[in-house]
């Protein structure tokens, strides 16, 4: 962006901000902050010179203000995420390291012989079946 930022550059500035927000690009947000400061300085110079119409000035300020709010919130979110990451890293560092020579034992295979519950269920079923078969004859 040139040293002189015009009203036509605001859509580009806003697009660059949105791209930085989407990519979580901290450098892009810092660059936006610098560019936004330049826009504010130019607005401060344009007001006493009456080089902008009232409507143009109002639109320019409104758009700039909204973009600045988005940038500020994004920076706060980034700081919060950094703090959460630091806390998580500290918590992980408190965990004891896993010994290198520990092997996880495989789970035992299922029993090949029927279990007691299965045997009882089968015998009850076969007993009932035998009783019904004998009764029906």
Short structural description:
The protein has 137 residues and is an all-alpha fold.
Description:
By secondary structure, the chain is an all-alpha fold. It has a domain of 88 residues. The radius of gyration is 36 Å and the shape is elongated. 5% of the residues are buried. The mean pLDDT is 75.
Key terms:
single chain, 137 residues, mainly alpha, 73% helix, 0% strand, elongated
Protein topology:
Layout: H1 10-23, H2 26-49, H3 54-94, H4 116-136
**Between the first and last Cα atoms, what is the distance in angstroms?**
100 Å
- Give the overall silhouette: elongated
Characterize the quaternary organization of these chains. single chain
Total helices: the number is 4
Number of strands: 0
Helix/sheet category = mainly alpha
Report the sheet-strand fraction: under 5%
Gyration radius (Cα, Å) is 36 Å
Low-confidence stretches: none
What number is the mean pLDDT?
75
The percent of residues in helical segments reads over 70%
Largest sheet: none
- Along the chain, the helix and strand elements come as HHHH
